[in-house]
Each structure stands twice: as C-alpha cells, then as structure tokens.
Amino acid sequence: MRINCGGEDSKESAYHRIVVESPSWHAFVLALTLCAALTPTLFLQGQDSTSSPAATSPTLATTHPAAPDNKNSIKVHVEVVNVPVTVLDKRGLPVINLTQKDFEVFEDGKRQTISYFRREPQPPLRIGLILDTSNSARRQLSFEKDAASEFAFNMLRGQNSKNRIFVQTFDETSSIIQDFTNDPDTLNEKIRGLKAGGGKSLYDAIWFACREKMLNAGPPEDTRRVLVLISDGIDVQSQHSFDEAISMAHRAETLIYTIGNAAYGYSNPGDKTLVQISEQTGGAAYFPLEKSPGADLGTGYLSHGQIGETSQNKGLGAETGKFSAERLIQLADALDAINRELDEQYSIGYRPSNATLDGTYRAIKVVALRRGVEVRNKVGYFASAPQE
Length: 388
Description:
This protein is of the alpha/beta class. It folds into two domains: 9-122 and 345-388, no CATH class; 135-223 and 230-343, von Willebrand factor, type A domain (Rossmann fold, 3-Layer(aba) Sandwich), CATH 3.40.50. It has seven helices and 19 strands. The protein has a seven-stranded mixed sheet, with helices on both faces. Helix 1 links the parallel strand 10 (125-132) and strand 11.
C-alpha cells in the first residue's frame, strides 16, 4: 500500500509451542536363528493429520522411519501461529471494534480455525529503525534525525516501555549504531551523531537487519518484529538481491514499513521498490515529502527557480524555515501513523491444519468481513522445527 501523508515480556502472546508426550511404537522382529528370540526394535512412524502435496514435504518420516530421541516417548510439536493484524478504514485510521467473528484466516489458501483472538494487551515490539546515510540522503538527514528521535520517544514512553528499538545505518555497508534498548535518550544521542556519506546497499541493509537482529530478537511468539526503513529506495551495490532480502524478512517474521525521503518535485524511481518491500512483508509505504508545500510559500507550484539549485527543494525556505518545518512535520506524521497502527493491532492465533514442520514457506491471508476496510498482517512464515 502506498500512502501519501502529511495532512492529518509476556508468554501470553500467542504463538505457543506445545510438547505432547506419547508412548513409543514397538515392533518385535522374529530372529531367523535356531535359538529364536524376540528383540525389541523402535520405530517412529510420522503421521500427518492432513494430506499435503509431496512437493511441499519431500522427506516425510513415513517414508524413512527414524528412531526417536527418547526410548520411552516421541515428541510431537504443535505450533500455534500468532498473526499481528492491522485493520484500517478508508481514512487510514485503525478500526478497533472488530470481534473474532469478523475475521477469517487462510494458510496457503486453506481456511484455518482461529484458536484465540484479542486486541490487547499486545506482545511487545522489537523495532529496527534503519536510516539511509548514503550521499544521496545528505540533504534529508537532518529531517530524518529529528523525526526518528521523536518516533523513538513515542514508541518507548509509558505503557510502551517493554518495547525495544535498535538503530542501523547503511551506505555501502550496514552498521548497528545502537543495539536494542528502551532508553530514548540513548537512542536520541546516537541518532543525533549520524553523518552521511558513501554508497548505497539497500537490500543488504534489510537482509542484515533481519538476519543479525530480528532472528535473534527472541521467539516470535513473544514479540512483534518491525523494521522502519527511511530511504529513497534506490540500491546501487548490494551483494544480496531484492528477493533474498524479502526472503530473510519472511524467515525473521518481520513487517517492514518504508518511508520515502525523496522530496516534492523530484521523480524517484525507488518509490516503486519501497512499495514492493512493504507490500511483500505486510507493512506499508509512506511518501510524506512528496506533498506539495503550503500555500503561504507562494503559488503552490514550484518552478526550478523556486526549488533552488536542484530538484530536491534544497534551497527553498532557507530564510524563513517554513518549508523545512513542513518537511519535518510530514516525516513525523508518517512515523506517527506507523506508531498508531502498531498500538492498535489485533492478535489472531491458529493451529495450522498442515502441522508438518518441513521447512516450507506458508503464506498467510487474513480477511475482515466488514466492508470498506483494509487489512494488513504478517504475510507468512517458515514451518521449521524448533531448535532443541
């Protein structure tokens, strides 16, 4: 979804891993010798409660029985998948009065039975704030720093104190300048010290954040994982591809919200990439700086002379600061919209009808039965066995 704005530690979370103990299967083999003896041999025969195509589960235990870890039992892991869901009305405002009956959940196109439903309290957030500090972001960086600091304060104040935020920058390389913390003053200090310069490796930045931070942010049942990316969406020299970056976000079960930093009057080819990143991970794309300046700055139409030495509004408002203030407000509004979304989410949980933990990717679709609303949710997960 593309949005142009500028106007207006608990185990209760819902992705539970249940371990069920059950007796082992024993088969007795008759020895083919004169001194017949019974020798107990243990077989583990995996059984699927639902049939699934061979293509999605090529190495099931039913084909090759394996011995269990424990002689007296086998362990069956039943996953309850937690799906954070945002519902917005036509104005882009959160809809917070829906009930469980207003939702349907599908995994790989098959309807699932909802195990639990709630709007609050929500699991705490693990947020990565990723700022483009390449040469192309030099003129926008001061606005980004102001808005990012305000966002950090809002996401960590009061009842949000269980949230954690890390800050990452990227140019040709990615750097974690502040690890996860709930101290907004520490975040503000690190953000204020940022400087721009260097190339641009956007896809590497996403891959790095998901692989190094989100995958290690604790079990997905205990947290909601979100990246907020401020960039122009242009990649120059990444080692990882767009698809690899998105795949790592899926593996880390991370939503990505993107904020374009290209200014009004500038045609930016990276906007499409930012939309694709957000849509394919369950987030949203915002383009606050593309809103035209206020009428008090002139005619409302910017000629090249009005803009300044380039098409990115570098010189506009230098004396009065009016346009600079507008740009800051627009960035802050975009981040505030993300804040509201994350504060007003629903949590929906279900036990997958396909319980096979075969490492395949499972696509999730949540449908709201109320008319005129938009639904955003985690778009999928990898059905991998838990690490012992």
